[in-house]
Amino acid sequence: MNELIASVFETPVINYRQLSPILIILGAAVISVLVEAFVPRANRRVVQLVLVFLALITAIIWAVTGAGQQAITGEGAIAVDGPGTFLQITILIVSVFVAMLMAENRLDPAGDAFTARANSLPGSEDEREYTNRGWTTTELWPLFLFSVGGMLLFVVANDLLILFVALEVMSLPLYLMAAIARRRRLLSQEAAMKYFLLGAFGSAFFLYGSAMAYGFAGSIRLGDIANAISALPGPNGLIIAAVALLSVGMFFKIAAVPFHMWAPDVYVGAPSPVTAFMASCVKIAGVGVLLRVMYVAFSGLAWDWRPLFWIVSIVTMLVATILALTQTDIKRMLAYSSISHAGFLLIAVIALNPQGIASTLIYLVVYATATVGAFGIVTLVRGPSGEATHLSQWAGLGKRSPLVAGGFAILLLSFAGIPLTAGFIGKFTVFGAGIAGGATPVVIVGAVASMIAAFFYVRVIVLMFFTDPAEDGPTVVTPSPFTGIAISVSVILTVIFGIFPQPLIELAEKASIFIR
Amino acid sequence: MNSFPWLTLLIVIPIIGAIVLAAMPRESVTQAKKVALAVSLITLIVTIVTLFQFDSDSDQAFQLVNSYSWIPALGVKFSLGLSGISIVMVGLIGVLMPLVILGGWNEADDAIGSVKGYYSLMLTLQALLFGVFMATDRFLFYIFFEAVLIPMYFIIGRYGGPQRQYAAVKFLLYSLVGGLLMLVAVIALYVQGASQLGEGTFDLSALSTLQLDSGIQKWIFLGFFIAFAIKAPMWPVHTWLPDAAGQTTPGSAVLMVGVMDKIGTFGMLALCLPLFPEAAQFFAPFIVVLALISIIYGAIMALGQRDIMRLIAYTSVSHFGFIVMGIFAMTSQGMSGATFYMLNHGLSTGALFLIAGFLISRRGSSLIESFGGVHKVAPILAGTFLLAGLSSLSLPGMSSFVSEFLVLVGTFETYQWAAIIATVGIVLSALYILWLYQRTMTGPVAPGCENFTDLNTREKWSVGPIIALIIFFGFFAAPVLNAINPSVDRVMQQVGVVDPQPAISDNVTIPVDENAVVPLEREANDGEGGQS
After folding, report:
1. Which of A171, A351, A465, A516 is deepest in the core (most CB within 10 A)?
2. Which residues of B touch A444 (CB under 8 A)?
3. Which residues are CB-neighbours of B14 under 8 A, at least 6 positions away?
């Protein structure tokens, strides 16, 4: 306590070098708001795109060149360490490709994937007029940058309050981004509403848990909480409740069963590029934080929270894969697949060993890589009323467009964890960490879930390659270089990580130590 | 200790062929076939050269080793090597491939996939099959084990019969179930190795030095064994095979049943036994019972089939029962016989599937009742079918007789009752083969069969070499057994079992030739075969 009080009177030390990626992105977000205000509508899109990509790339360069210089900064509120930097760089790189998907404007005859004006009534005269004028929601870009900035802060936050602030900075823009689809707008708005309500619900859990942890430890710092736990003579209800509530809050964010209800609806309703963003970057940030909180603050209570995590992991993998079997919509299926991956990632959290950290990092990278590509391909397959997401519409795609179908097949095989794709390396390292951490039964359930999952991934491949295309089937639209590059990079990386995973594993292992 | 990369070449050549084929224009049908045949012939030549460099007197566990660093972070190496057991399979793959391409010359013409795609997949399959049998790194083995599924899956799914989708998915799911169980076992073994040896490794010889707790050993053994039992396939996890073999093209059926399924029995012999000796001995009686059930059940089911392809698939279930029984009898004759059986079954089933393919392409139906009196219109076709069938029922003089006899003798030493019951399987095999021959080849010429042409030159060149090999090995099994025996001895040593006593084994010499008992003489004379 004394330390805390004393520090109030000193100038806080802030290592700007280590925080530069966050500051660059948040700074760019502010500029982006100004662009919305002052740049004429006709030029906004171009200016915003230049700004976003410039900011992302500058932030990547700063993060990469600064990697390895670890620091606890901001008076202990922020810990820029190996996993933190690794996740920041991953989020930034994935964001570049997500931004490319968002920048796509050649697929829809009316423009990009976002509505002309978010406040016009769906189906109204207004909407038609704005669409005809060629307007588009460039407000997307400041929202996107704020969300990315929140994620960057989220994964390095070292105290519960910063965690909560970052969580909100990350989530609030996402609620809006989910609402601005150009097609099927009502669905999109409903998705946003659902996401907002359940997200707020999750945040409340998180905040309540933080308060209890503070009540127990007298500090919100993760390291102090860990010290307080190790000094604990016997069981303490307060801290157990805090762990439970905090976990629930984070389970909401990573969509682990039974806190996954929002995910399928939101993934389907949101514009596909935004779905890609949610499925990849939010998952990276959420799992990264879950890992940090559990490893840094609560590893002393492992005996208490591990059984809970065992159950959540097992239930997540089984429920998600079994429900995915029954889906007929490709985005819904990918949503359940994304939920099941949360279950696999939890195996590494349970492991509670250095391999657990490294394997989580590896898994997140390969999962995010494939996810961006998969949702990118979903945007390409279109019917007259937008994306053709019903599975039956994908029949015979292999004949009509072998390249796109082939790429999608590779991504699906990677999700299924078939060898020589990146997904296998992820699954292998996670299972390895799990067995080494004494969670063999969970790993066996994981293997069973992988088999079930393989069935529905393979079903899509069967549809694409072994059946004849329907007469009035959807067309595969040729995208602009933006989407083209994002998808190609995703597919190529999925194969490269599968065959030559050495650099990725090495990096992850090097980055696998938390500081507190 | 890298020698000239012969083994790597065996994988690289077909892969290059597959890429070339994939890059060809869709319209080039005949050209694609010629390219595929040429590539497979080049591979055959390299295979033969490789086989001749194998030294059966060497005391190395693996020869012609090619080992390259791959994923050092996980202790994974790209390392290939030949043992006396794998060399048999490598030879079989090399020989069968050009014959299969020749025999199934037109089988992909009317499929929804392109012809060049078919041969591209077949060559990929060949490369991966070589990889499975040559991999000496467990991780690499697992990769090949799973990767083999993908080309096979697409072959069934795009080039198979009317039920192809169902068959392809069933095939893939069954195999994945086994594969993922094995993955857990592979990782568990890796973790055990990492804690005992200080660093993770997948090297077979390093892993076989582990001191595994008997409980853990049993679980890991089961993980591997179930995967291999599904692959083999044994009763009760065999049901994917008749569907897959019945729906796929005859050429790929040869590779699937003749070669790919041997991964299962190969894995049991070359992996399960050396790595988990205690668990293997513990489970051996149960597995022998399962093998017996496979033998009898497969034979009875074969009797009941109406479809030629399915019938041959069920005979294979029965034959695989013999192979597994030979392996888990834990005697040197049993294991040598089982290994030799893998080769012979590949040849005889290969010939049966190819000739069945000729029949089906002439008649346009694979039902037995569609045929009749074929030997009147196409005597050579009928004759080769009879020879292949006789080989399948292990007639003396055919190579399969040698192996079946060794298996039975080997089993008799440790599981007398099993060997006695298994002989019923031999009787049944005579029944299903001869009855099949009677229904399709003899009697009045069935409607639709009147215009059958006899085998043309291409088809003769396709089946002829297989039949020649079957008869050659029937009279002269020594070279193969000489290569197999040292490796089998090594496995016996690793498991820690010895043959009960050599008195019975003297009988083995009578039917074949004195070389068949080499393992026993070896042990009696010098007991060599130093630990690797």
Report:
1. A351
2. 184
3. B39, B40, B43, B97, B123, B124, B126, B127, B130
- Amino acid B527: pLDDT: 40
Q: List chain B residues with CB under 8 Å of A396.
A: none
pTM for the model stands at 0.86
Nearest CA in chain B to A418: B146
The domain segmentation of chain A, as residue ranges, is: 301-511
A382 φ, ψ (degrees, to nearest 5)? -130, 145
Q: Do B73 and A436 touch (CB under 8 A)?
A: no
Taken as a whole, chain A contains a residue count of: 516
A270-283: burial string, b at 16+ Cβ within 10 Å, e else: bbbbbbbbbbbbbb
Strand (E) or helix (H) holding A205? helix A185-217
Say if B184 is an interface residue toward chain A (CB within 8 Å). Answer: yes
> What contacts B474, CB < 8 A, 6 or more positions away?
B396, B397, B398, B399, B400, B401, B402
Neighbours of B488 (CB within 10 A): 28
Contact A379, A101 (CB under 8 A): yes
Kindly give the residue spans of alpha helices, DSSP state H, lying in B329-456.
332-363, 374-377, 379-392, 399-414, 416-441
Nearest Cα residue in chain B from A469? B112
- B233 upstream amide cis, omega within 30 of 0: yes
Q: Verify whether the Cβ–Cβ distance B173 to A506 is below 8 Å.
A: no
Beta-carbon count within 10 A of A292 CB:
25
| Whole-angstrom distance, CA of residue A324 vs CA of residue A343 | 14
Q: Running DSSP on this structure, what letter comes out for residue B65?
A: E
| Distance of alpha carbon A116 from alpha carbon A137, whole angstroms | 6
Partners of B66 in the beta sheet? B80
Angle at B269 between CA B264 and CA B273, to 5 degrees: 120
Q: Which chain B residues touch A409 with a CB distance below 8 Å?
A: none
Q: C-alpha B329: how far from its chain's center?
A: 19
Query: Which residues of chain A approach chain B closer than 8 Å at the C-beta?
Result: 399, 413, 418-420, 427-429, 431-432, 435-436, 440, 443-444, 447-448, 450-451, 454-455, 458-459, 462, 465-468, 500-502, 505-506, 509
All residues at 6 or more sequence positions from A40 whose CB lies less than 8 Å from its CB, including other chains: none
Among the listed residues B248, B44, B13, the one whose alpha carbon sits nearest the alpha carbon of residue B152:
B248
Q: What is the rounded CA–CA span in Å between residue A374 and residue A492?
A: 13
Q: How far is B25 from chain A (nearest CA, A)?
A: 14
**Is B168 within 8 Å of A450 when comparing Cβ atoms?**
no
- The pLDDT value recorded for residue B206 is 76
pLDDT digits (tens, 9 = 90+) for A186-235: 888 899 999 999 999 899 999 999 999 999 988 889 989 999 988 877 77
- Give the one of B72, B169, B191 whose C-beta lies nearest to A462's C-beta: B169
- C-alpha B166/C-alpha A467 separation (Å) is 12
Q: Which helix (H) or strand (E) holds A381?
A: strand A381-383
* Inter-residue contact B350 to B262 (CB < 8 Å): no
Angle at B259 between CA B254 and CA B264, to 5 degrees: 135
- pLDDT category of residue A86 using cuts at 50, 70 and 90: very high
Contacts of A450 in chain B (CB under 8 A): 176, 180
Residue with tokens 């029954």: A326
Query: Contact at 8 Å (CB) between A348 and A372?
Result: no
Please list every residue in chain A whose beta carbon sits closer than 8 Å to the beta carbon of residue B74.
428-429, 505
Tens digit of pLDDT for each residue in B241-296? Answer: 888 887 888 888 888 888 888 888 888 888 888 888 888 888 889 999 999 999 99
Question: Is there a contact between B184 and A443 if contact means CB atoms under 8 Å apart?
Answer: yes
- The interface predicted TM-score of the complex, written ipTM, equals 0.78
Name the least confident of A84-88, A168-172, B85-89, B522-526: B522-526
